[in-house]
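Course assignment 3, question 2. Fill in each field.
Student: A.L.
Task: Predict the tertiary structure for the chain below.
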Amino acid sequence: MIRRRYSSGGPQRSTIAILLCVANLLSACNSGIGAELPLPARLEVIGTSSDGRREVRCSELRAVQPVVFLAFGQSIASNFNQAPHTPERPSYNIHQGRCFEARDPMAGADGTLGSMWSYLADALPGDLMPYTAFVTIGVGASSVAQWDAGGSLNAHLTVAVRATRDAGFEISYLLWHQGSADRGTTEEAYQSHFRGMIRSIAPYGVLPGSLPGNARVLIAVHTRCGSGGQDVVLAAAQRGLVDPDNGFFPGADTDTVSDNFRYDGCHLSKAGQEKAALLWRDRIMVAARHQPR
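Answer field:
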């Protein structure tokens, strides 16, 4: 049983905050309404994996109905950022049909350092998303063509989607954070590969859209890594994929994150991870409250 104790603001204030958010007042979603409640109960740990991950029963995770995010792309979406983090909020990492407490490095993505997603777990509003779960499958230096049907990473994507659904979880959000490996790619080619990638997971029940049961796809703007400014053609290709009524939304624009927030000129420092998490949070909340016309 999950126990909740209200702060001095009481349940009425928390309910008002939720209603404001649902009524499309984004400032209410971003004003820390999760602070109105203490952290919800964590799930019972049933064991520890060989690499030290604390495992929970997937059946118990399903019972609390977490919001499930599939986070993928290249190294910025993996574990190559500077500061490993363990979320303070109850957040989980679904990997190969098993369920673990989330912590960096996130299982399923490559790299051995930190991610954005562990920070995002703490940034999301707790009243609206008390439990979150992440399926993380990013691969450093990967191109969009590799993720497309027939590409070398497409099976990596489809196997993860199938395993997540076979474990009884519905993926609510796809967080695509990729691009710098495709600098110089034409807008047409990038968008064609992206759409092919999305089509390849439809047979496994992940269908983009803005209606209940659909997955909302968020597409980051990410064209910078190391020397050189923004690839304006590539950024236009990523922005051009946005189509909210059909389930495609803008994701975090990390081209706006300066080198002051990157520890090696490309990957994020701890402050950069925190900043990127807030960018993602804001975009997710916009997607969450979108109503198709």
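Instructor remarks: The radius of gyration is 18 Å. Residues 1-35 have pLDDT under 50 and may be disordered.
Grade: pending
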